[in-house]
Design a protein that fits this description.
This protein has 155 residues and is mostly beta strands. The chain has one domain (6-154): Immunoglobulin-like. The chain contains no helices and 14 strands. It has strands at 6-9, 13-17, 20-24, 27-30, 36-43, 53-59, 66-72, 77-79, 87-92, 97-102, 112-119, 122-125, 135-143, 146-154. The strands form three sheets. The chain has a five-stranded antiparallel beta sheet with strand order 2-3-5-10-9, with no helix packed on it.
């Protein structure tokens, strides 16, 4: 039986929505059952601004979007019940970075993951200006028994 790996590729990518910028650099390899960390560096607003919360959502192929959780300016968090024991969200206000941490990553966690800014009823997902979205997330495919997750950037 071949070992199974999760390879997450995050090519120094950014997107812009008005004056808001999201960046996800680096790459990691994760074995099933291990931890996954995805960092989202934001600019154009401060994580200490009480007007906003930063959310993580994911979209698995063939399924509806799923909200994972959020973190607000004061550090308060909330999570969807089915994921709250395996995922956590932290923020570093000095670097304006919000991080999604996943524990015991499994095949069902294969999805496109989005870092999202929320204000009142408006969500600004990692997108470029002029109303056509530039979405950043993860793709997954299998080659010779190895699961590969890669960055997806489309507009």
């Amino acid at each position: 039986m071949l070992p199974v790996y999760f390879l997450v590729l995050l090519g120094a990518t950014s997107s812009v929505f008005g004056a808001v910028d999201f960046t996800q650099p680096g790459h990691v390899i994760v074995h099933p059952g291990q931890a996954l960390t995805i960092a989202c560096k934001v600019s154009g607003w401060s994580l200490t601004d009480s007007s906003y919360c930063t959310n993580w959502i994911r979209h698995a192929s063939g399924k509806a979007m799923q909200w994972i959780g959020h973190i607000c300016s004061g550090g308060g968090t909330g999570y969807t019940d089915s994921l709250k024991n395996r995922f956590s969200i932290t923020q570093d206000t000095s670097s304006n970075t919000v991080t999604l941490n996943g524990q015991n990553v499994q095949m069902e966690d294969t999805a496109v993951y989005y870092c999202v800014r929320y204000k009142n009823t408006v969500m600004c997902i990692t997108r470029v200006p002029v109303q056509k979205p530039f979405q950043i997330g993860f793709l997954a495919f299998i080659i010779d028994g190895i699961i590969i997750l890669g960055l997806k950037a489309t507009n």
